[in-house]
Input
Amino acid sequence: MAQPKVLFVLTSHNKMGNTGKPTGWYLPEFAHPYDVLAPHTQITIASPAGGEAPLDPSSVEATKDDKASVDFLNSKQALWKNTEKLSNFVGRAKDFDAVFFVGGHGPMFDLATDETSHQIIREFYESGRIVSAVCHGPAALVNAKLSDGSYLIDGSAVTGFSNAEEDAVGLTSAMPFKLEDQLNKSSGGLFEKAAESWGEKVVVSKNGRLITGQNPASATAVGKAIYKALSAK
Output
């Protein structure tokens, strides 16, 4: 039996608003789901610009004691240095079983408003595929609409990086919007979060076809939820 195919999407954005600080995608939010899914699936990596997708250097420092992230950083660089252009996957939902948006602050600036990404999300979901994201990756879902004009997440429980977590890292003012507020608005008030900041939280909605994780601590569990949903297809 052929392995399921998953499209991982990374941000191409590398500047943290007007702070002068770098950003990008967050190391454990790629490494942990990849480690869960790679033995069982075929993974393709894309980004809006294609080519090298920017790794947030702060995530390297933050995970220096996390063996999985360190090993991934040292051995898997080809995955993010040679990404395919996201637009190449328009009209190709039938070739995949799921799409997964990796977190990091970068998606707040590009994937949140990227019309190509929104089209791919719509095509994947309306073709019966799984749509998934972790931490700031759900920024890609905030403005995504279905063919009938409704928000993809309208009426569905969803999670993502919380306002309290954004405040804790001191970056609320650098963001173009508050992710928790916008996810709550687009879902119709159905945003969920862990009881405590930085706690693991994964929300599975739409009969297993919408999977979101709150923060870096949720990355492995998101990978496991995606695998479970793929296994049930």
